[in-house]
């Protein structure tokens, strides 16, 4: 059974032979009714505050859930970016090694070609020197022959 401040304020009591003084009972019931009204108002205020706090908790839980999802997504993206960067670094490394090997092969081929060229030039020089020497020897022999025959 609910009891309201109005119920307390206007409660009637039967009177007996030596019953309570009506004014004292009325005064006390009025004070009780006032206290009840204050408690009821306070209770309603607390209920309203509780509803507001529960709504705030629900909103914060939802925001927390969204934040957790965002963190999980950020971690996943970070892992994917790291893996992609590692793959790209490995590819760049392989390309650099292949380029280095190609440069070394080309340098070795160029060195071999230049050595062959140097050897060919040495041979041509030796041949030219021998032919020139032979030519000079021929002229010298002709000069001696001319000097000796005159």
UniProtKB/TrEMBL annotation:
What Gene Ontology cellular component terms go with this record? cytoplasm
Q: Which UniProt keywords apply?
A: Cell cycle, Cell division, Coiled coil, Cytoplasm
Q: Does the keyword Cell cycle apply?
A: yes
Localization per Swiss-Prot or TrEMBL: Cytoplasm
**What's the domain of life for this entry?**
Bacteria
Which Gene Ontology biological process is one annotated for this entry? Answer: cell division
Task: Supply the InterPro entries for this chain.
Answer: DivIVA_domain (IPR019933), DivIVA_fam (IPR007793)
Q: Which residues form a coiled coil?
A: 29-131
Q: What family is this protein classified in?
A: Belongs to the DivIVA family.
Recorded protein name is: DivIVA domain-containing protein
- Species, as recorded: Thermus tengchongensis
Q: What is the lineage of its organism?
A: Bacteria, Thermotogati, Deinococcota, Deinococci, Thermales
């Amino acid at each position: 059974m609910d009891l309201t401040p109005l119920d307390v304020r206007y409660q009637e009591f039967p009177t007996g032979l030596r019953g309570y003084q009506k004014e004292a009972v009325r005064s006390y019931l009025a004070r009780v009714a006032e206290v009840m009204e204050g408690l009821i108002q306070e209770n309603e205020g607390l209920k309203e505050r509780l509803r507001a706090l529960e709504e705030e908790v629900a909103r914060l839980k939802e925001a927390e859930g969204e934040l957790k999802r965002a963190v999980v997504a950020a971690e996943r993206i970070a892992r994917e970016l790291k893996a992609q960067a590692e793959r790209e670094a490995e590819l760049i490394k392989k390309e650099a090694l292949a380029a280095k090997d190609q440069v070394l092969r080309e340098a070795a081929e160029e060195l071999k070609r230049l050595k062959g060229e140097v050897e060919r030039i040495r041979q041509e020089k030796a041949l030219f020197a021998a032919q020139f020497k032979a030519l000079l020897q021929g002229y010298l022999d002709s000069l001696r022959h001319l000097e000796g025959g005159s």
